[in-house]
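Audit log entry. Action: structure prediction of a protein-small molecule complex. Ligand: calcium ion. The ligand was supplied as SMILES and no pocket hint was given, so placement is left entirely to the predictor. Protonation state taken as written. Sequence taken verbatim from the request; no trimming, no tag removal. Recorded inputs:
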Amino acid sequence: MKKMIFAFVATLCFSIPALADEGTGFIRGDVDLDGNVNIADVTALIDYLLSGQWPPEAPEPEVITVNGVSFTMIPVEGGTFMMGGTEEQESDREDEYPVHEVTLSSFSIGQTEVTCELWKAVMGDRTDYPNDMQRPMEAVTWTECQEFITALNEMTGKQFRLPTEAEWEFAARGGNLSEGYKYAGSNNYNDVAWCAGNAYWAQPVATKAPNELGLYDMSGNVSEWCNDFYGPYSSEAQTDPTGPVSGQEYVYRGGPYNYPASASRVAQRFHLEGQWSHMGGLGLRLAL
Ligand SMILES: [Ca+2]
Ligand SMILES: [Ca+2]
């Protein structure tokens, strides 16, 4: 009898419509949203049933407005992936190896790069970027990004931050919905990335196709600062890695509009000193 009840609950577990929807990035049956489907999900489902909260729902994209400017954070369900120069990357760059297994907890990431419009809404007149305000903010240092995030957090009461390098790559690869593309959402850079070959300067965000998670411009447009110091990869499997504890330079990812397409591969790493580098084509994307 106990077995029958268990089997019944397990069947329920795998039929949760909210979590089975195509395109949400969430795994069918993963009730507790930890990226794995296992016995813990059956327990979580029983808890949901007993608490009267049925059905459990996958988190929705969140729209946040500051000083009249709205932006969207996309939930990314945690999971396990291979990080670094996997086969489809066709990479000869030493720092993408060894390819290693990374497991991440759930997080949210900006649907787009931080726009000039959003930067201005948060930092007042600090921006002197005169052109299209829907373009990504660029030529900002890692330190300035932290100032922007601190100000944004004071305005919203939230805990925005830069993504870790692993979160950035997992999201670029499409998270649990990954199709294994070379670029974020396609094997053809022209579908998804503004880069040398189709652009001379930054383009308004979200004007190429999104990736599997609905994220725009993870490949190309502007590169994006990550929170981590730059360092070599280790072959060991890691959970929620945050990079080296100290370092000289910070990681940035995604390849800018003025680099060749290969620079916008999902695995390619860049690094730069964080305080003085006002580099054109380098911006940011928020994580939460
Ligand atoms: Ca689970
Ligand atoms: Ca980008």
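Audit: result stored. The two ends are 44 Å apart (CA to CA). Residues 9 and 45 are 8 Å apart (CA to CA).
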